[in-house]
């Protein structure tokens, strides 16, 4: 078995960054190749990140190719309130997933999280809702 990993990062100011890399593996006569790229930038209030990944494999049971494309957005309304959202599409399941999280620190020892997940899938060239979920979590630290 052998593998090769390579990553490249650019030198930019504190908040902006980009990265790219690839991996090639050849374990047990099976080829696996993957590549990644991401870029992000923003300010202390808003951060945006775009990412893409492609995986290719040649196995005795068959070949496969999967691509992932995603983006993250984070908005810091205040030191105590933030909203983060992540959207991802993958070619294997042909679906889009959305995850949005609101975090509110209403006391130094207490946080409230509201998380919304929404997934749609392409069926016969039409988008169909796969799942919908809303979760609420209250976190409190007892200190004595």
How many helical stretches?
0
Query: Which blocks of ≥5 consecutive residues have pLDDT under 50?
Result: none
The number of E-state strands comes to 9
Write down the CATH class. Answer: Mainly Beta
Radius of gyration: 20 Å
Structural class: mainly beta
Percentage of helical residues? under 10%
Spell the H/E element sequence: EEEEEEEEE
Strand order of the largest sheet: 1-2-3-4-5-6-7-8-9
Shape: extended
Secondary structure: elements and pairs:
Blueprint: E1 3-9, E2 17-25, E3 31-42, E4 46-59, E5 62-78, E6 81-90, E7 95-107, E8 110-123, E9 126-140
Describe the structure.
It is built from no helices and 9 strands. It has a 9-stranded antiparallel beta sheet with strand order 1-2-3-4-5-6-7-8-9, with no helix packed on it. It has a single domain (about 5-140), classed as Porin (Beta Barrel), CATH 2.40.160. The protein has strands at about 5-10, 15-25, 30-40, 45-60, 60-80, 80-90, 95-105, 110-125, 125-140. It is extended. It starts with a strand and ends with a strand. It is mainly β. The model has no long low-confidence stretch (mean pLDDT about 80).
Keywords:
extended; Porin; 144 residues; mainly beta; single chain
Task: Produce a short descriptive summary.
With 144 residues, this protein is an all-beta fold. It contains no helices and 9 strands.
């Amino acid at each position: 078995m052998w593998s090769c990993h390579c990553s490249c990062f650019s030198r930019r100011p504190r908040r902006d960054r980009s990265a790219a890399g690839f991996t090639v593996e050849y374990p047990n006569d099976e080829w696996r190749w993957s590549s990644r790229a991401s870029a992000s930038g923003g300010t202390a209030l808003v951060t945006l990140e775009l990412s893409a990944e492609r995986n290719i494999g040649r196995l005795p049971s068959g070949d496969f190719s999967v691509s992932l494309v995603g983006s993250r957005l984070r908005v810091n309304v205040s030191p105590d309130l933030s909203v983060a959202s992540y959207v991802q599409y993958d070619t294997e399941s042909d679906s889009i997933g959305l995850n949005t999280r609101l975090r509110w620190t209403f006391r130094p020892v207490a946080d409230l999280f509201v998380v919304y997940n929404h997934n749609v899938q392409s069926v016969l060239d039409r988008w169909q809702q796969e799942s919908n979920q809303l979760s609420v979590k209250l976190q409190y630290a007892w200190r004595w």
